[in-house]
Amino acid sequence: MKILIDMNLSPDWVVVFERYDIESVHWSSVGNPRERDTVIMEWAKTHGYIVFTHDLDFGSLLAATQAETPSVIQVRTQDVLPISIENLVISALQQFECELELGALVTIDQSQYRVRILPIRRG
Predict the structure, then answer these.
(1) How many domains does the chain have?
(2) What pTM, to 2 d.p., does this model score?
(3) Chain-centre distance of CA 58, in angstroms?
């Protein structure tokens, strides 16, 4: 599993993922910090990464394009610092590892996880 950390999340997440033997990279180290979400999504897809974000636009992009990849993990909490939600994020990654490898949108909030298999169908 490889995680691409979006600009709206701290680069400190790289260290967190390393502790769990999860390869990760913060977008600021591989791309233009002002780049559009579509470019970030394409980079993640091309390089085999899962997008980790606090931005709801990525889920909307998946739905609008009917994309099968890349997988996206959306954090929907006010406090997105690793010290506050590390356990939630790691638990969700472990629980939905297979789905994320195949193509999924995983949403994490304080009380639950939700998973939608890609492509997202309008219903």
Answers:
(1) 1
(2) 0.95
(3) 9
